[in-house]
């Protein structure tokens, strides 16, 4: 698998892309918004084997020396993608 890092090393604009075989596919993740100790919002683009774009969000809740992380993802599925469970 080939990995590509672009933009700043952290925060808005930091990006990670990958290109792999048929099982791994191809895609890109870009941080579109973040606030330290609160949340990170990512644009998640799948290119191969099926094209799709989603927004993923990681919410952070520091408490008693631990951090609870809540992950959510939103986007649309085309007809073919509805046959796959994520």
Quick take:
The chain has 86 residues and is mostly beta strands.
Provide structural commentary.
Helices cover 0% and strands 60% of the residues. With 86 residues, the chain is an all-beta fold. The radius of gyration is 15 Å and the shape is globular. The two termini are 21 Å apart. It has no helices and six strands. The relative contact order is 0.16. The mean pLDDT is 89. The protein has a six-stranded antiparallel sheet, with no helix packed on it.
Strand order, largest beta sheet: 1-2-3-4-5-6
Please give the largest β-sheet: 6 strands, antiparallel
Task: Report the end-to-end length measured between terminal Cα atoms.
Answer: 21 Å
Query: What proportion of the residues is helical, as a percent range?
Result: under 10%
Strand content: over 45%
Number of strands: 6
The chain-level structural class is: mainly beta
Mean of all residue-level pLDDT scores: 89
Contiguous uncertain segments of 5+ residues: none
Gyration radius, in Å = 15 Å
General shape? globular
Write the topology of this structure.
Layout lengths: L1 E5 L8 E5 L6 E10 L3 E10 L3 E12 L2 E10 L11
Antiparallel strand pairs: 1-2, 2-3, 3-4, 4-5, 5-6
